[in-house]
Amino acid sequence: MNAFALHLQTPRGRGHTPPAGFTGAAGGAACGDLIRISVALRDGVSVTDAGFDASGCGATIAAGSAAVSLVRGAPLLEAARVGVDAIAAELGGLMPGKRHAAELAADALHRALGQAARLRGQLEPRGDRVLVAMSGGVDSSVAALVSAREGDEVAAVTLELWSDPDNDGEQSCCSAQAVRRARTLAHDMGLPHLTLDLRDEFRAGVVEPWLADHGAGLTPNPCVRCNGEVRLDAMLDLADRLGAGSLATGHYARVAREADAGGDGAETPLLRAAVDPAKDQSYMLAALAPDSLARMRFPLGRLRKDEVREIAAQAGLPTARAPESQDLCFLAGTGRAAFLARHGGLGERRGEIVDRAGRALGHHRGHHGFTVGQRRGLGVGGGEALYVLATEARANTVTVGTREDLRTERVTVRELVLHRGASRVDRVKLRYRSRPLACKVAGDLGPGRHPRASLELEEAVYGAAPGQLACLMDGDVVIGHATIAR
Questions:
Q1: Three-state SS letters, 123-162
Q2: How far is CA 377 from the centre of its chain?
């Protein structure tokens, strides 16, 4: 009897759910095959038991049995090396038409392993072990490669953050398809890989506030919230469980270490802009707490994008020429207006476009479709070019005026967080892709949290959008952050 027939006729662990086990599922109505795999950890170190259940074609049942056989008794990080190829090999090889079953089994297995590692993992700490966040793109794959070349023991993790049948999962960096691509890449690089399913946390902590802010007439930046409150904290917690001393990501940023203001000689880390200003992502990471930043590594912070692609090409990584994602991960393949309507109830709502005196100039389809400083899409023709000056949620109005009406040299911010005294601040970034503007913080504010503050700019800015992050800097070092107020 060949291996496939053996696993099909006498499937190992079918119908068995280990006590205190963790379960992952894959498949469903779209393909007709469904598989659930459960694993239990012994002392948080190895897979002591595993079982599965499946419905659909015989290949799915055989793949579930093969996955269970491969991980029972395996150390956690060895189990994390089991993927599609290993499952197919356990079955004696699979024809292309049957590999879908191994993919489903791998998806379910890694969802289960990710839960188990996140909640029960207790690997012994190792200073040379690093957890790398892998999205499946060129930046994260090179971050993993550089970490491995520096002599670290590397494990990879990918987050599943969003699932929406109306999205294009192939374009997203956090869909089930993206997780699968990243896992395949990690295994091809010889790395163990875990999946964290954070869809509930992402919806509650990122998407719902983003929708609420749009409804309130603000211009939110969900990536700042995601990095500061959801993604990186979850991966740092997993790093603790895996005994990893640090978390590496493919962000373009650096870490600066300097003596604390307390005078005790202690050093605390501050975020620093990347060498490549065109790719710098320190703005998106500005809300990271210093305690989190202390355990972060940014291997690409000293590299330029063309250098990163060259490293990938020389290593033969398939990501070397992969295109970059250009939109928010949860918008992949769908329009912002359609998403706001479907998930936030923010559909078309006819309102007035008015000037500063309140005179009606035209109509719009919903205030939530506009942001301060916007020029295009107003539909008000003739005369001097007009820009959005403000939006009002309750009245559903959009106020417009000239570019000069947008001009301001003072920006009010709320929820200010300072890692050093305000006297250190000499510039601010008011949007991700904008250049830093020379400024100072009004008042003698010390390190800590402040409910409200005023930024005095040395040159005028034309449109500071309420809801966006204000990234406060001393040269190229991030001193603090705040949210632009109305």
A1: CCCEEEEEEEECCCCHHHHHHHHHHHHCCCEEEEEEEECC
A2: 30
The answer to whether residue 226 is catalytic is yes
What pTM was computed for the model? 0.91
Alpha-carbon distance 353 to 483, whole Å?
Answer: 26
Could you read off the pLDDT of 81-133 as tens digits, one per residue? 999 999 999 999 988 889 999 999 999 999 999 999 999 999 999 989 999 99
Q: Which two tokens stand for residue 230?
A: 């959801």
d(CA 305, CA 348): 40
What whole-number distance in Å separates Cα of residue 158 and Cα of residue 154?
Answer: 13
Strand partners, 406: none
Nearest to 412 by CA among 310, 352, 348, 483: 483
CA-wise closest residue to 121 among 35, 289, 4, 238: 238
Q: Domains in the chain, start-ordered, CATH in brackets?
A: 3-120 (3.90.1010.10), 126-331 (3.40.50.620), 348-401 (2.30.30), 407-484 (2.40.30.10)
Task: Exactly one of 174, 226, 439, 471 is catalytic; name it.
Answer: 226
The single-letter code of the amino acid at 33 is: D
DSSP letter for each residue of 357-384? T--EEEEES-GGG--TT--TT----SSS
Give the active site residue among 173, 223, 329, 471: 329
Query: First and final CA of the chain: distance in angstroms?
Result: 73
* C-beta neighbour count of 475 within 10 angstroms: 12
Question: Phi/psi zone of residue 112: left (φ > 0), alpha (ψ -120 to 50 degrees), beta?
Answer: alpha
Give CA–CA dist 332/471, Å, rounded.
26
* H helix or E strand, kind and range, residue 237: helix 231-241
Query: Could you tell me if 484 and 413 are in contact, meaning their C-beta atoms sit under 8 angstroms apart?
Result: yes
Q: Is 340 helix (H, G, I), strand (E, B) or coil?
A: helix
Strand order of the β-sheet with 397-401 is 360-364, 351-354, 397-401, 387-392
Mean pLDDT of 68-80: 97
pLDDT of residue 236: 96
Owner of token pair 């994390």: 80
The burial of 54, by beta-carbon neighbours within 10 Å (0-12 exposed, 13-18 middle, 19 or more buried), is given as buried
Do 79 and 71 contact (CB within 8 A), yes or no?
yes
Six-digit token pair at 129? 């072990």
Contact 195, 321 (CB under 8 A): no
- C-alpha 88/C-alpha 67 separation (Å) is 9
Known catalytic membership, residue 329: yes
Amino acid at position 282, single letter: S
